[in-house]
Amino acid sequence: MPKTKSDDDSPPEGGGGSQENWRGEKRSNDTHESSTDTQARLFRKSRGTGALLCYMGHVLTDNRHGLVVNAQVTQANGTAERDAAAEMLADAARFAGTTITVGADKNYDTAGFVATCRENNVTPHVAQNDARAVTLPRFHVQQIMQRSI
């Protein structure tokens, strides 16, 4: 629903559930907000999908047994996945009392995430965010292993 600047609580013309045509117009968190939850944010997961008003859910699992170790819900933004992962890994490392390891995809291949992991006694094994990685023979094995996650 588009944001309105008035303090009037009456529904917009056409009722509260009217379908408006936004074809060709830019959508952003400055122009849209949820009518039921003003903290939800527009987020697009990939290039082929549309932006939705939502939150993001994050789950940290044990690689060996698939058990959930930690879970969080955050506001949707461009760094929410890395930020939540770093926070959950720091909690897990404190609880473990020893160095732990983490495997992550190329979205986590940033200097900030890797540095945060190392500061918190976590050894990161992150896929490189590099186009030439596709040509390496281990890339295909890595893709097969990720399907099990």
Automatic annotation (TrEMBL):
<feature type="region of interest" description="Disordered">
    <location>
        <begin position="1"/>
        <end position="42"/>
    </location>
</feature>
<protein>
    <submittedName>
        <fullName>Putative transposase</fullName>
    </submittedName>
</protein>
<dbReference type="GO" id="GO:0004803">
    <property type="term" value="F:transposase activity"/>
</dbReference>
<feature type="compositionally biased region" description="Basic and acidic residues">
    <location>
        <begin position="22"/>
        <end position="35"/>
    </location>
</feature>
<feature type="domain" description="Transposase IS4-like">
    <location>
        <begin position="51"/>
        <end position="128"/>
    </location>
</feature>
<dbReference type="InterPro" id="IPR002559">
    <property type="entry name" value="Transposase_11"/>
</dbReference>
<dbReference type="Pfam" id="PF01609">
    <property type="entry name" value="DDE_Tnp_1"/>
</dbReference>
<dbReference type="GO" id="GO:0006313">
    <property type="term" value="P:DNA transposition"/>
</dbReference>
<dbReference type="GO" id="GO:0003677">
    <property type="term" value="F:DNA binding"/>
</dbReference>
